[in-house]
Amino acid sequence: MINIKTYKYLIVILVFAFFLPLPSLSAVALAEKSKEVIAVGIADGKSARARDEALNDALRKAVEQGVGTYVTTELTVEQQRLVEDRIYTESRGYIQSYKVLHEGETEGLYEVKISALVKMGKLAEDLQSIGLLIRKKQNPRVMVVIYSREMNSSWIGVALEGNRNAENQVESSLIEKGFQLVDAGQVQRKKQLETLLLKGDPSKAGKIARDFGAEILVQGEVRRTFVDQRPIFGRATRFFSNEIRLKALETDTGKVLFSGYKTRPASGAEALLPLQEATSELAEEMITGILKQWRKDVFQAGTYQLNISKASFSNLSKFKQGLLKIRGLREIQTRSFQSGHALLEVKYQGPLEQLAEKISQMKHLSVEIVGLQSNSLDLKFGN
Prior knowledge:
By secondary structure, the chain is an alpha+beta fold.
């Protein structure tokens, strides 16, 4: 039997263990966002100051390796300046931890070799903010179409044009983050888009937006529904709810990149500040959601569609076998195959243009690339 003293010790141990943190889960989550690199820093001299300068140089080079993981194309002068000002000069902020593997003075130079864990998640987020992620996605163009309804309490209802301000807000937020915009164009064409969206037909609206050169369509609806009538300074004022909905989708594939809404308490018919605040918040959430999707496409594996004409079962099978040999291609799914037309969905780590080049170099099968959009390829098999 366990005596009282031993029992008390067991209770203390169990209580202590219960309050200990669980490092395994946090360590795994942290490791997924970190990368270990080896870097060597050099500085003139052999003083303590030279040692600090060499260590800082090693930390900067460790971060440079992390940047190189994400940036494989040349930077513009402006982007290079931003990377130097915001990334390299604060390199310690991207280092989770480091240890010195070797240090010493050689021929008047002080050298420090380190093993460092670079915070890749933070690095990716900061790089995206200076436009590098958008560039790697081939600068997709965006069209914004937002419509609104402001209804009174009668059974007839009165529809008012109140969407222009919300539309301008969303466009300004996109421009500020480096997105390229495409104007909806003529009033008649914009009305056509609004009608399709009101009917719940985003695919046709997406086709029209694509014809205008937009790879992404941002559709939105402002809802200001009559709530009640309240006296304000002795004057009867109608109060309306404030709600904004936004959805962003790829115009070629119909893939939804973001969908969300925001609400604010009811306000007077002319009091639009609550709606403006909701629109601003939702626009930021939408941009964050789009960039999050793009990070997966660029830095992991993106999903692309291959539209194939003149396909037979035999050459389609050979084509799929050839695709599996392409480095970076992770998965192939046949979405449809009928009357000589096939639709494949593939996951590929890298830009679509790069995949197109690799497909054009395939041997033992005649494949012609006849069209390239933001997220889809049009192919035609030869004889």
